[in-house]
Design a protein that fits this description.
The structure holds 2 protein chains of 2 kinds.
Chain A: E1 10-11, E2 17-21, H1 25-37, E3 42-46, H2 49-58, E4 63-67, H3 73-83, E5 94-98, H4 103-112, E6 116-119, H5 124-136, E7 141-143, E8 148-150, H6 185-192
Parallel strand pairs in A: 2-3, 2-4, 4-5, 5-6
Antiparallel strand pairs in A: 7-8
Helix pairs in contact in A: 2-3, 3-4
Chain B: H1 6-10, E1 16-17, H2 18-30, H3 33-52, H4 60-70, H5 76-79, H6 83-102, H7 107-123, H8 129-144, H9 147-153
Helix pairs in contact in B: 3-4, 3-7, 4-6, 6-7, 6-8, 6-9, 7-8
Classes of the chains: A alpha/beta, B mainly alpha.
Chain lengths: 199, 154
């Protein structure tokens, strides 16, 4: 996932509208300086959940970077956003940041509907890596009684042991007999051909 | 679900090379260095004032207050090259978290963290790297003393 620091690959955040939520002025300023360095021109700053709610009700947001805050307000905001029904913002990628990340906080971050949690201190390289990763990955969006947000299963390791799976696309644990003919070598080679990846 | 726009926006023509973006962001952060040192100094003063009010026995409200003082500034010190302070703040947050979850009380452990923060603010430099590491290692030992009990109770 790491970005090559010498890469000449380009990315463009000029037209992206970004919400920054951090209850501390310095924490907010650090985010502003990092995002401005990345070329972001449209930054919406919020010091608390009320300001952030007001922003997402008035503007379309392409990315939200939200600090969890010691009292957990960040988790509450993300959870509210996911269930708000405000389109397209309720589906906006959310990067959570936190100074202290004990296990229960990571669990809260996962369950509130954030796309990813980053531990502070933040470095520009790490933030950019995560933003690019979030933009690329195509996780499904889950909307059920107990959770709204991107699929929390980042790794596809199949259905948990012994279970049947709850999703339509979950595959059974047993592979079973082949139902189609094997692919020929040319088809396999075609699938493995190296292709240039565009950022 | 509507398609997220972020990926498409990143791919629009123009923009910046990755390396240049990281360079610019790092340079921008450099402009905050002075303000960050001042901010950290104030945060440590607040932590010291909080510790001065430390009750003699377990008090969850006090731990919540202390956590509210020492958790928010994590990440600020690294911007001005004082990364060891972030490590020490993190260790103090761990300690407060463990004390909260186990119901135990250790005034000295909290005090030694705040004293170490003051020391690191005034003495950290390349020449003191070894001493800095020794201080951080000591703090980790103190906060980890309660980690096992907290884990067992979780």
């Amino acid at each position: 996932m790491g970005l090559d620091a010498k890469s000449r690959a380009r990315f463009n955040l000029e037209r992206a509208s970004v919400l920054l939520l951090d209850s501390t002025p310095m924490g907010l300023e650090i985010l502003v300086q990092v995002l401005t360095g990345f070329g972001c021109k449209v930054l919406h700053r919020a010091n608390d959940n009320e300001e952030a709610r007001d922003i997402v009700q008035r503007y379309a947001v392409d990315l939200a970077i939200v600090d969890a805050s010691p009292t957990g307000e960040g988790y509450e905001f993300v959870s509210w956003l996911r269930r708000s029904g405000i389109e397209p913002n309720c589906y906006t990628p959310v990067l959570l940041t936190a100074g202290h990340t004990p296990t229960h906080a990571v669990g809260q971050a996962r369950d509130c509907g954030a796309d990813f949690i980053m531990k502070k201190p933040l470095t520009p390289k790490a933030v950019l890596e995560r933003v690019v990763w979030i933009a690329r990955e195509g996780r499904k969006f889950v909307d059920c009684d107990t959770y709204v947000g991107p699929d929390r299963r980042i790794k596809n390791e199949g259905v948990p042991g012994g279970g049947q799976g709850r999703r339509r696309d979950d595959l059974p644990p047993d592979v079973g007999e082949a139902v189609m003919p094997n692919m020929d070598q040319d088809t396999i080679d075609g699938l493995l051909t190296t292709r240039k990846v565009k950022l | 679900m509507p398609k997220r726009q972020l990926g498409a926006l990143l791919r629009t023509p123009g923009g910046l090379p990755l390396a240049e973006a990281v360079e610019r962001a790092t340079a921008n952060l450099g402009t905050l260095a002075g303000a960050c040192v001042a901010e950290i100094g104030q945060s440590i003063d607040r932590a010291e004032a909080c510790i001065a009010r430390c009750p003699p026995g377990f008090d969850e409200g006090f731990l919540v207050d202390l956590y509210g003082v020492v958790s928010p500034p994590i990440g600020v010190a690294s911007v001005c090259g004082l990364g060891a302070i972030d490590v020490a703040l993190h260790s103090l947050c761990d300690l407060v978290d463990h004390l909260r979850s186990t119901g135990r009380w250790d005034i000295e452990a909290m005090q030694v963290h705040v004293q170490a923060l003051k020391l690191l603010l005034h003495t950290e430099s390349a020449q003191n790297a070894q001493q800095t590491e020794a201080v951080l290692s000591g703090l980790r030992q103190v906060s980890q003393r309660y980690a096992a009990a907290a884990k067992a109770g979780a």
